[in-house]
Amino acid sequence: MSDTQTVPGRIMAAEMAEQPAVLQRILDEGAPKIFEIAGQIAAREPRFVLLTARGTSDNAALYAKYLIEILLGKPAGLTSMSTTTAYGAKPDLTDVLVITVSQSGGSPDLVASTKAAREAGAITLAVTNNAGSPLAEVSEFHIDVLAGPEKALPATKTYTAELLALYLLIEGLRGGDGSAAKALPELATGILARQDEVKALAERYRFAQRLVITSRGYGYPTAREAALKLMETTYIPASPFSGADLLHGPLAMVDNVSPVIAIVPDGKGGEALQPVLDRLRGRGADLVVVGQQAQVESASAGFALPAGVPEEVQPILEILPLQLLAYEVTIARGQDPDAPRALAKVTETH
């Protein structure tokens, strides 16, 4: 019997543990290339940005959308690939930057839509973990996120690598130096060392029937990615909501036995989430907070994140305890997070 069969989750655990080293590699080896590409793209003055992705990479793309709109002041949107691949639409993409994000760079619809975008006049950039992928080949520019081979089906290190690569790209587009990211590898090491805290937290969700995960601002992509990780590993239905959307109806499904995880950014996103947290407490929800110590203390339980981190890079740290949570809940439920049922590493949508 192989090691992966005798030790469930061994691969996912090892890949989560690699993340500080991957982040450092991007800062040391990847950043110069990323800034070079950013300079070439900025010189062409794209009028707006479209982001194309699926699954985990779609959550990384949503993070990039926040960065582009807040830091660059440019409109940004998430594409619907079927408009091109299924309906044959041919929008005019002259002077539009199209960023396609994919761990493998192998999904046929990503490749087809990127090729079509380039033919329609777009500046095309692929962000992948595979420099030799079909997606990289059809794109004008390519950024390698340098995460190394990822064998567990749930994406962990490639997600945080995508986030950091996208942050550095947008920093480069606006002439920044990416200094807000310098401390991330060390801070990530500290968070991952607190796995015992997460293991204790996981006991709350061992028998959960459903979960609600909420955030606002830069934290919303984290909520979506956390929900995806929990669903694909634990099989617990997890619904991610923007805090604003949660108040527009779905709050009705939250009661005093409903587990809610709130990602509370330290900054404007967290401030915007406060009325939602107040309503959740008022409904007696089992509220767990991933955020600053004061927010954790006012909840049922939680995980305190390091203070003083700029809000635009906090998502790179916020997701780490939630990856650990997905892993620990899955193990507690007697399942193997390395190989969730019915999933493949490269999803071939068309």
CATH architectural grouping of the largest domain: 3-Layer(aba) Sandwich
Biggest sheet descriptor: 5 strands, parallel
Q: What is the alpha-carbon Rg in Å?
A: 20 Å
Average pLDDT level: 92
As residue ranges, the low-confidence spans are none
Report the sheet-strand fraction. 5-15%
Shape verdict: globular
**Structural class by secondary-structure content:** alpha/beta
- The named CATH superfamily of the largest domain: Glucose-6-phosphate isomerase like protein, domain 1
H and E order: HHHEHEHEHEHEHHHEHEHEHEHEH
The CATH class assignment of the largest domain is Alpha Beta
Give the topology.
Elements: H1 3-6, H2 10-17, H3 19-43, E1 48-52, H4 55-72, E2 76-78, H5 82-85, E3 96-102, H6 108-119, E4 123-128, H7 134-138, E5 141-144, H8 157-173, H9 184-192, H10 195-202, E6 211-215, H11 220-234, E7 238-242, H12 243-247, E8 259-263, H13 268-282, E9 286-291, H14 293-297, E10 301-304, H15 314-332
Parallel strand pairs: 1-2, 1-3, 3-4, 4-5, 6-7, 6-8, 8-9, 9-10
Helix pairs in contact: 3-8, 3-9, 4-8, 4-11, 8-15, 9-15, 10-15, 11-15
